[in-house]
Specification:
about 15% helix, 10 strands, mainly beta, 5-stranded mixed sheet, about 45% strand
């Protein structure tokens, strides 16, 4: 692969299309330690930095981390729904995140060792979920549903955003759901979502600004 790229032995149009797709779905990020170069990508999705304002959109972040030392993500299905409700004074953002380990126990038992968890084998897998609220909001509440789901922290502020940090322990076939609700006063743009690209594309809906009665 390196030889082909270094020698320009590839279809340029197909390469540009693939790179663009990778940037759009969050699979490709770029950072330069040369200030002049970095300035050109500041604020662009390829920089990997969540927006710092709500001027164009109010972007929620949901990020996953496999903490099982495994390659189980091929079987992990994810769904994220973001619902924004607007009022005269501000907005509320409800972020529902669902993980489904879509494999039967028998099938998990015969997976190669490098796919299984280095800690728990095929018995369970742990995934961290970080839900980043919109700038200018606070974390109002959290909810959890599943056999073993726990809130690790609800007092984190990162990038001037409130963060809810969860851990889910999923046995094969299980589903876990976490909900974080954020609210704030002032002007907000329409809701948007930035999340970890998964092997299986994340499903879900982003609904912006349903005006309160």
């Amino acid at each position: 692969m390196f030889d082909k790229i270094a020698s320009a032995d590839f279809n340029l149009q197909a390469m540009l299309s693939s790179v663009t797709r990778g940037i759009d779905n969050g699979s490709i990020y770029f950072h330069s330690f040369h200030d002049e170069v970095q300035q050109h990508i500041d604020g662009e999705k390829v920089s990997g930095v969540l927006p710092t304002s709500n001027e164009v959109e109010s972007t929620v972040g949901v990020f996953f981390r496999d903490e099982s030392a495994s390659k189980i993500d091929y079987y992990m299905k994810s769904n994220i729904d973001v619902n924004q409700t607007c009022s005269a004074s501000g907005s509320e953002f409800v972020v529902d995140t669902t993980l489904h380990l879509d494999i039967a126990q028998g099938a998990a038992d015969v997976l190669p060792d490098y796919v299984k968890s280095a800690t728990w084998g095929s018995s369970q897998f742990r995934t961290a979920v970080y839900v980043y609220g919109v700038p200018g909001t606070t974390l109002e509440s959290v909810q959890m549903d599943g056999r073993e789901v726990r809130l690790v922290r609800d007092d984190v502020v990162d990038l001037d955003r409130p963060v809810a940090y969860f851990e889910t322990y999923l046995q094969p076939g299980e589903i876990a759901k976490v909900t974080a609700t954020f609210s704030g006063e002032g002007d907000f743009g329409p809701a948007a979502l930035q999340s970890t690209p998964m092997v299986q594309p994340t499903t879900g809906l982003v609904n912006g600004c349903a005006q309160e009665e």
